[in-house]
Amino acid sequence: MDALTLFGLFAVTAMLVCYALEDRSHWFVLLFAMSCALGSAYGFLQGAWPFGLVEAIWAVVALRRWYLRPR
Question: Which segments cross the bilayer (predicted)?
Answer without folding.
Answer: 44-63
